[in-house]
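Researcher: Watch the backbone:
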Amino acid sequence: MTIRANFFLLLFACMMPYGCDEYRSIKNERELFTLDIECKQTIPSEKKVNMVLHYKRNEENLATYSGKIERRGARSITFRKRSYEIDLNKDLSLAGLPKDDDWILNANYIDKTFLRHVLSYELFREMSPQNVAPKCQFIELALNGEYNGLYVLMEKMDKSSLGINGKDTTAVVFKDPHLFRDNYEGICPWDMSDFHQQTYPKNKNKSDFVEEVRRFILTSSDQDFTEHLPTVFDIENLIDWHLLLLMSNNGDGVLKNFFIYKKDKNTPIRIAPWDYDHSFGRDGDNELNLDKIPVVINRSVLFRRLMQFDWYKIRLKQKWQKLNKSDILSEEGLKERIIINSDAIRDLANKNFERWSVDSDWYYDANGFDEEIDIMLKFVTLRHRRLKEYFDFGISGL
């Protein structure tokens, strides 16, 4: 490994939620957190049931907690390897992550690298200190004492992790609101009484808030749009989200797979990304997408309008250049991140594939871990080349 790569390894370790020594020991398999969940019944998908969590490090039981568990996911709920949501009886820190009582156990079944979520969220947080995305940690999961595979333990995007002021009546959180769509044709919400999928507050419907913002995007004059946009949206946050979508090529993420939230009356709307397993070389149904179908940003009514203004395109290009100089979005920096992360979990991932086969019916091929990492690296080269041309020779469209 080069001196530069060794530097990045140390830098990466220090940016992890646990300390540098813990990162190195995990990488060398001397420090591994396991969540062993004991549940006396089949875990359902529509309600939480009682469970006991045995929290272990290197097979040593550190503590035992009680709480509830349920299966989670939309299409992913049909995968053989299940994802779960757990609700502990009190706020606790797990695997070095910030204290909370709600946690996501992401099976990461469709992404054989286990990195697409982790990498995307990490990049978004580093783009700006104001950006929020789930903090993650790799853990192993056992169910009733039996090994169930490698998982990504993730923060749940909720009032706590998003920093919502619970005393402010203007504070809101929505998951996948239909805010940026051209129209509502064909939309079939899970709950018709909650069309925009509000997650906070629980006891008061605030769909009018989304509709008001939507009217502002669609009907305000150019002068009013430009003048009032900074009070409606955090523009720097929008630019970072825009660049994350472009770099990851996450087509699903333009109209869904995100949270919008308003912390209080003095803070504009911000975006928090969610669900990036279909990115960095794979598309929405797991098919290879190295460079053939670039993300269409203009599907979003907000991005479509923003791209009509030179001031926005200038700021977008300036942030792209800044993030490249700082190696956050440079080709070299991205590749080093992927290599460092993959080196850290290779043995754990291959152990997972002994439990969950790499040639399942859900996959288009029987690629193993290293072959999937190579796809990500190849994608970064192709995507970065395309984006460099995009920003160097005009950003009217991709």
Residues 331-355 form the longest helix (25 residues). The CA atoms of residues 176 and 256 lie 5 Å apart. Confidence is low (pLDDT under 50) at residues 1-30. The first strand starts at residue 33 and ends at 38.
